[in-house]
Amino acid sequence: MKKIFALVDCNNFYASCERVFNPTVMNRPVAVLSNNDGCVVARSDEVKALGVVLGTPYFKCQKQVRKHNIAIFSSNYTLYGDMSQRVMETLEQFTPDIEIYSIDEAFLSLSGFEHLNLYQYGRNIRRTVEKWTGIPVSIGIAATKTLAKIATRIAKKEKSFKGVCSLVNDSRLDDVLKATPVENIWGIGRRSAKKLHARGLYNAKRFKYANAKWVKKHLTVVGLRIQQELWETSCIPLEQFPPPKKQIICSRSFGRPVTSLHDLREAVSDYTHQAAMKLRKQKSLAEVLQVYIATNRFKAEPQYCNAMHVTFPSATADSFQLARFACRCMERIFRSGYRYKKAGVVLAGLIPEGESQADLFWNTSSLRKQKLMDGLDVINEKYGHGSIRIASAGIRQPWQMKRDFMSPHYTTRWNDIPVVKATES
Question: Which pLDDT does position 361 carry in this prediction?
């Protein structure tokens, strides 16, 4: 049976999420800012047309914001995560085999759907996702994941395709590849692109017909698989169950410079708890904990950065245990007289639950502790992050990120649920 893949990519996802529950910005340019309202990380098509480049610092584009009435939002990751889940659950209605590739992308297996008009099936998926979630998507359909990526790019750029592009059994495939710069091929990074340019391979078609031995020698077997995918030979399978992360990092820049050890202890406690929740979600335990702090290297002021790690006798996922050691590490590396900009926590040496070597003097397997952690996770999952947290993380948290343009948590907080008021005619 011939393999067929569809890549569903949400259009301007963060900006689209903000528009779903806020009709006042439906026809306005929309931009979403990064942590601490620093840079533009998401743009609607109108903002792109105005020439605002991705990554532009907010203070540099404030004139354009005022001139063109651009709606600005702080990153609302709780909203985006919930909307992403709704999109993925909708996609599961169309095929049992799905790989969630990122927060706004998913690969679908359409193998066995050859008897259908794949273009029309893609149009049906697109209509349903937008109707059920309000999020517009672009869909690329092809015999391999690499070609599906290329098809999705075409579906986004070419309005005539109406959001769906199918390259299955398309005689114009080589023409499409010829129009695709080699650096736009999925899996071809900057270094690989330089090597291909040096050999005169500037587009996907030339790369497709390049000498396979040369490709394997200079781009390794990974590059060879990508080349084979351009020949419609599927070499990158669908990952329905992605492998667990090898390390978990939780770090943030502070909303204002932090100078006290008390605030830094609160911050690393909160970050450790967040990392531990992710650790438990993938059913893993951590053998190593690392904590680091740093000042703002872009400021003309005294600079300092440091890190410390601890290796546990037996792996753990206990938030309280991890936070206690994180605070101890912070006490060791803290130096007064500096204005700290960022802190972070890294959990490494991850192993599956049940594979931890027990230690006579290190108790991490208490059933009572496990039930407590499960309770914390259930409450935070149901009522939103921060609904309940460990005491050492503090309550007011003045060091939290700057979010002056935050939208409501429409889908995860009762007080933020949109209210429709009837008016008398």
Answer: 61
